[in-house]
Amino acid sequence: MKTLSVRQPWASLLVSGLKDIENRTWAPNYKGRILIHVSSTKAPKNFADRTIFNVNNEIENEQMFGNFPEYEDLEYSAIIGYVTVNGDCDDSTSVWAVPVKHQWHIEDAYIFDEPIRAILYSSSIQRAISPHQIVG
């Protein structure tokens, strides 16, 4: 199964279904389900200060209701779930879209009950594990 490395908190936002666009400088060479691997890079301490107001409010609301972990509780160096990549564009109206980048359309998010510990060294889509190892 293909795997994409993403920094936190964006990785958790993807697999929780809160983030519907993944911004990349390159077009996806694959459509379908991909595993989301969290890199070991920690979330910046001022992440919330630099986040768009509407996005930050959505995250805080989800945290208040227990639907999204606090930043210090986010997983690192693990595969935490999967999403489906359904193409890309450069003109999405999503609050997550960044201009001039490839905006990957994300759907069908799923968070694993237990993360799969793994270390990847690239942000490109890679083959990590076979599909029969994934239940969900």
From TrEMBL:
<protein>
    <submittedName>
        <fullName>ASCH domain-containing protein</fullName>
    </submittedName>
</protein>
<feature type="domain" description="ASCH">
    <location>
        <begin position="4"/>
        <end position="42"/>
    </location>
</feature>
<dbReference type="Pfam" id="PF04266">
    <property type="entry name" value="ASCH"/>
</dbReference>
<dbReference type="InterPro" id="IPR007374">
    <property type="entry name" value="ASCH_domain"/>
</dbReference>
<dbReference type="InterPro" id="IPR015947">
    <property type="entry name" value="PUA-like_sf"/>
</dbReference>
